[in-house]
Amino acid sequence: MSSKGKKINQKFTAALLQMSLENDPNKNLKKAVSWIDKASKKGAQVICLPELFRSKYFCQTEDIRNFELAETIPGPSTEELSKAAKKNQVVIIVPLFEKRAKGVYHNSAVIIDANGKVAGHYRKMHIPDDPAYYEKFYFTPGDLGFKSFKTKYGNIGTLICWDQWYPEGARLTALKGADILFYPTAIGWHPNEKKEHGQAQFDSWMTIQRGHAIANGVYVAAVNRVGLEKDSDDSAGIEFWGSSFVADPQGVIIAQGSKDKEEIIYAEINLSRIEYIRRNWPFLRDRRIDAYSGIEKRFLD
To answer: Which positions are annotated as active-site residues?
Structure first.
């Protein structure tokens, strides 16, 4: 059946795989497949993995050897997880380090539909360059734009981590028809900053994404990793704060994980609630699209 002819159910269960990850990509992939099987047995229909799930978060340093972690699309991850999707009749969001060509790499996400076929592909648009988040060394900015992908269970938008902070990306993805915005993520505290700035950083992360849900009348799901990861024994590392969550179209947190444990977070996504909230808070109706000239500029002098 073509995508135009797909019958979309009004409800589905999303599962966020909040995982700790290790150096061995094959072990991480095997673990992901096992967790997907487990989540599907508990009723999950759309399952999302954390950002760059095949390895530890290698962007803490600039090391040319880390490019060996990249893979093609299609490739090992999409091949294995396509089998898992078809076997369990689930949609899987697969975030990975994409090797596009010699010397050209992206931080990407592949959406695999419940029939095991690739429904779409997104490349991270906003690339950070902060202490221990040296992503500009590794990733070319995305060039596929913001998208919504039709799947068996609903219209899914994917953005990735640093994209979380940009209302433009959330808006454009929602305007493409996405019912839920998934944000595969790798975010945490620098241990030496946690005491002074940790709570404010965490609150900002939650607030901005709840705001995307409210402003666009969509569900938002952020899927983080968990645990302390160090690039060397001398490094303070990053303490990933977990707390994967789902917010409904009114910004209400309907499911959330812990800060320090591996777990699967489940949430019911009710597509009819999007219509209900947008009728009462008609932000999309009242947008002044005639008055937003300049938003495409870097700064207005």
So the answer is: 51, 124, 161
Summarised one tens digit per residue, pLDDT across range 54-103 is: 999 999 999 999 999 999 999 999 999 999 999 999 999 999 999 999 99
Beta bridge partners of 246: 221, 255
For position 296, what pLDDT does the model report? Answer: 92
Task: Please state the pTM of the whole predicted model.
Answer: 0.95
Q: Which residue has the tokens 């915005």?
A: 181
Amino acid identity, position 114: A
- Cα dist from 113 to 79, 89, 153, whole Å: 13, 8, 9
Give, to the nearest 10 degrees, the angle between helix 25-41 and helix 76-88.
10
Q: Report DSSP letters for 9-42, one per residue.
A: PSEEEEEEEE----S-HHHHHHHHHHHHHHHHHT
Would you say 251 and 211 are in contact if contact means Cβ atoms under 8 Å apart? yes
CATH number of 12-280: 3.60.110.10
DSSP string, 125-183: ----EETTEEGGGT-PPP-S---EEE-SS-EEEE--GGGGG-HHHHHHHHHTT-SEEEE
| H-run or E-run covering 264 | strand 263-270
